[in-house]
Write a structure and sequence with these properties.
Dna Ligase, domain 1; two-stranded antiparallel sheet; mainly alpha; disordered N terminus
């Protein structure tokens, strides 16, 4: 074992550093060389020099000739260039290391690739790291033009779909109700059992059959639809006799329950009677007499002399106000008529009718009540007034029918016999008003007689008996066109009541 190996280690830092520097080799001066050869096209060196070149900058080869740079000093620039080449434009804006003339590295902002050279940096940018080869190839592939055949097929499909939609709309508008009924989609015609509530009064008039009673029940709010009660009678093959009077029923009753209530005498109000709007003495007295249990002859005697009630007329027609009345059991026929006449005077006073004009206003109002529907009352009143102003025949079918005793014919057309009969009520034969009212007018009709709407009309005709739609005309030619519309409706609706 040598002495060095056996000696204890000496902990002298200065001695060890001295030994280190004493053993360093002698420095040698290296002369830098410049590679003036052109870089290989497409090489990393070519890309690095292209990325580092700026407009107006000195050529790298010329700079190399005048400013020597060592290989070690070139390393920072090469590293920065490699980063730029790898990350593309994203790294081009970051500071890079450059060398001064003394070979000392310094920081400088590298120009962007877009400003220095349109060519992309070697290796691409960050986006290239996440774009697949297929995506890159698809981006370069030109888009295909839409084929004309696809457009034609689309148009054909749209035409077919549109045609089906239009056909469906037409079918629903035409047969929607029937389809709903057949499929059970529509609302039921009858109310459900057990939901009846409240109390309503229904008036059954003398001679009423299933149809009028069905309408009266619907208008009073008893049944859900106008025809459900009548349809129930037909479907069940029931023959029912309806007795005139006022009956106490409930709202929202089934057709079966309503019939049972009408058959129950307990629901018939004693000593309660009614006069219908547009009714006459002849049509009203029998039901009143039967309901009150007073002989019909007593009522005929009670209306024979209008002066008993202070009425200066040859008849009480038009003075029995349409309403529902309730009397004591001991009432007399004269007391019944007196109450109805008094109610008429109340209405005349309420509408500002002078006593001297009462008979005239009631006569006009009675014609309005018989001829027009409620919405047209004021127009019918104007037609009557316009004709009276020029002494033109009123030519109202309702007056001819009243005088002839055929009110059942309706107001749209009359028989030739009724139109030709020379009686004092026939306004086809006599100018001016009939000699008495022809019916019991309502409050609305009396108001219309006092306040006709402004207009030039001289004619009117109902052109749709189902809805009551009426055409008002100024000239005879227009009126004849309206008559033709009425005839067309009658031809299309042979059972519509024409």
């Amino acid at each position: 074992m040598s002495e060095r190996e056996s000696a204890s280690p000496q902990h002298d830092p200065d001695a060890r550093l001295g030994d280190l520097f004493e053993n360093l080799p002698a420095p040698t001066r290296q002369i830098p060389t410049v590679d003036n050869s052109a870089p290989t096209p497409g090489s990393r060196r070519a890309a690095r020099e292209a990325a580092g070149r700026t407009p107006g900058a000195q050529d790298p080869q010329d700079a190399a000739a005048t400013s020597p740079v060592s290989e070690n000093a070139e390393s920072p620039r090469r590293a920065a260039a490699d980063v730029d080449a790898f990350f593309g434009a994203a790294a081009a804006e970051e500071p890079v290391l450059a060398t001064t003339g003394d070979g000392v590295p310094s920081t400088a902002s590298a120009p962007s690739a877009a400003a220095s050279d349109p060519a992309p940096p070697l290796g691409g940018g960050l986006d290239d790291l996440f774009v697949t080869h297929d995506e890159r190839a698809g981006a370069d592939r030109p888009k295909k033009k839409r084929r004309t055949g696809c457009l034609v097929a689309l148009i054909i499909v749209l035409v077919i779909v549109g045609g089906l939609a239009a056909g469906g709309v037409w079918a629903w508008n035409t047969y929607g109700d029937k389809i709903s009924d057949a499929m059970g989609w529509g609302e039921p015609a009858d109310w459900e059992e057990g939901i009846a509530t409240g109390e309503v009064l229904v008036t059954i008039k003398e001679g009423d059959t299933g149809g009028p009673v069905s309408t009266a029940l619907f208008e009073a709010g008893v049944t859900r639809t106008e025809d459900v009660f009548y349809d129930y009678l037909i479907n069940e093959n029931l023959a029912v006799t309806f007795y005139p009077g006022v009956y106490r029923l409930q709202e929202k009753m089934t057709a079966e329950a309503a019939l049972a209530a009408l058959k129950d005498d307990a629901n018939k109000l004693e000593n309660t009677v009614s006069v219908a709007e547009g009714g006459t003495i002849t049509s009203s007295l029998p039901g009143i007499a039967e309901t009150l249990g007073i002989p019909i002859e007593d009522f005929q005697a009670a209306v024979a002399d209008p002066s008993v009630y202070g009425v200066a007329a040859q008849s009480l027609e038009g003075w029995l106000f349409p309403a529902v009345y309730t009397f004591d059991p001991e009432v007399t026929a004269t007391q019944v008529i007196q109450k109805m006449v008094d109610r008429t005077r109340e209405s005349l006073t309420a509408h500002g009718v002078p006593d001297a004009d009462a008979q005239r206003v009631l006569t006009i109002a009675s014609i309005i009540q018989r001829e027009g529907r409620l919405d047209d009352f004021a127009k019918v009143s104007r037609v009557i007034q316009n004709r009276l102003d020029i002494d033109m025949l009123l030519q109202m079918d309702s007056t001819a029918q009243y005088g002839y005793g055929s009110l059942h014919e309706g107001v749209v057309s009359s028989s030739a016999e009724a139109l030709e009969d020379d009686n004092a009520w026939n306004t086809y034969k006599h100018t001016g008003l009939p000699i008495t009212p022809i019916a019991s007018p309502s409050d609305a009709a009396i108001d219309a007689a006092m306040h006709p709407v402004d207009g030039p009309w001289l004619y009117f005709v109902t052109i749709n008996l189902s809805t009551g739609e009426t055409q008002f005309s100024e000239t005879l030619a227009e009126h004849e066109q309206g008559i033709e519309k009425w005839r067309e409706w009658c031809r299309a609706n042979p059972e519509g009541g024409c």
